TrEMBL record:
Keywords: 4Fe-4S, DNA damage, DNA repair, Glycosidase, Hydrolase, Iron, Iron-sulfur, Metal-binding. This is Adenine DNA glycosylase. Residues 40-191 form the HhH-GPD domain. It comes from Aquiflexum gelatinilyticum. The lineage of its organism: Bacteria, Pseudomonadati, Bacteroidota, Cytophagia, Cytophagales. GO terms for biological process: base-excision repair; mismatch repair.
DNA sequence: ATCCAGGCTG
DNA sequence: CAGCCTGGAT
């Protein structure tokens, strides 16, 4: 580990003093100022947080001033910065320091972690910047820099990923320069090893960077997207004419590509279920049809979609077969023998529906 | 218009 | 592990 990380740490600590931004919360050991800046900078860009930092420090020069302020005042000053639980926790934390710590900031990672609004990142930041405790910060920048340089593909959103990166960072942090290392790796992530299109040709780390040397810069770090499940509502028409049925082959750009299902309308919500299937109006203009609505909504789960499907059975008299065929051709649907349906690839949802039809025929 | 980043809490 | 918010990117 030392052999691998040594050039990393060395290059990083060489790079930092020449490239660091001059920010007002740097170059201080005051835990109050460091804490205040870290809470404000959580989920917040420097440019947006800077004026708030100055405003807070002006109004509350020390932790007791903040503790003695009202929550209303704190919330008012925080206005516009977002994530307002940070402001409530900020105030509560200041009061707890006043009431239970004699107004003195706790000075270790573990004790800082007990305070409101201080998690592992912020505890490590304060412990290292203010008290030189050799504990590594792991924020979004650190994930990215370590994942790329060391070629780690573990999902950074997972718990195991977080532990793995924390272990690595804590293994390589120089015990004699924890503050400088922590500042350096975050600044490197913020300025050089940026999320999109980093300028790797100019990067001082490229010789030892796994991602650069293996063309993986754009795929690291791995972050598994929290897939938000989309709900969709399919209103199918199961159109029968004698022994034939109307099917369609699903095309590109959606689920079930190349499989077969039936003509359908997609609704924006289940409430629209009253609405008649749009294209049935069309064919009703040419022919008499019998529509058998069903109350049943099939539920079909995919990785990223939850589909609710409802089927209306439509009976077309055989004298209208040629008109139906003409309409189907125009729409790109097929009119096929019901028996042939067995041979076509179909989504599970459709198979289930067809199975239910067989049962109801018996 | 929609998507995304970003630590902590309960 | 979802929810919290905003501004910037697309």
């Amino acid at each position: 580990m030392i052999l691998i990380s040594d050039p990393f740490v060395h290059t990083l600590l060489e790079w930092y003093p020449h490239n660091k931004r001059d920010l007002p919360w740097r170059n201080t050991n005051n835990p109050y100022i460091i804490w205040l800046s870290e809470i404000i900078l959580q989920q917040t860009r420097v440019a947006q947080g800077l004026p708030y930092f100055e405003k807070f420090l002006e109004n509350f020069p020390n932790v007791e001033d903040l503790a003695n302020s009202s929550e209303e005042m704190v919330m008012r000053l925080w206005q516009g910065l977002g994530y307002y639980s940070r402001a409530r926790n900020l105030h509560r934390c200041a009061q707890d320091i006043r009431d239970f710590h004699s107004g003195i900031f706790p000075d270790s990672y573990q004790s800082l972690l007990q305070l409101k609004g201080i998690g592992s990142y912020t505890a490590a930041a304060i412990a290292s910047f203010a008290f030189n405790e050799p504990v590594a910060v792991v924020d979004g920048n650190v994930f990215r820099v370590l994942a790329r340089y060391f070629g780690i593909a573990t999902d950074i959103a997972s718990n195991t990923g977080k532990k793995e990166f924390e272990a690595l960072a804590n293994a390589i942090i120089p015990k004699d320069k924890p503050a400088e290392f922590n500042q350096a790796i975050m600044e490197f992530g913020a300025l050089q090893c940026v999320p999109k299109n980093p300028n790797c040709d100019q990067c001082p780390m490229k010789a030892g960077c796994f991602a650069f040397n293996n063309d993986l810069v754009h795929s690291l770090p791995v972050k598994i997207k929290k897939l938000k499940i989309k709900e969709r509502y399919f209103r199918y028409a199961f159109i029968l004419c004698e022994n034939e049925v109307v099917v369609r082959r699903r095309g590109e750009g959606d689920i079930w590509q190349g499989l077969h299902d039936f003509p359908m309308d997609e609704l924006s919500s289940q409430n629209e279920s009253e609405r008649q299937i749009g294209f049935l109006k069309e064919i009703q203009g040419f022919m008499t049809i019998y529509v058998n609505e069903s109350e049943k909504w099939y539920k079909h789960i995919l990785t990223h979609q939850r589909i609710f499907a409802n089927f209306a059975t439509v009976i077309v008299q055989k004298e209208y077969r040629s008109i139906l065929k003409e309409w189907a051709d125009k729409k790109g649907f097929q009119l096929i023998d019901f028996e042939k349906l067995e041979d076509l690839g179909k989504p599970r949802l459709i198979v289930k529906f067809l199975d239910d039809q067989k049962l109801s025929l018996n």
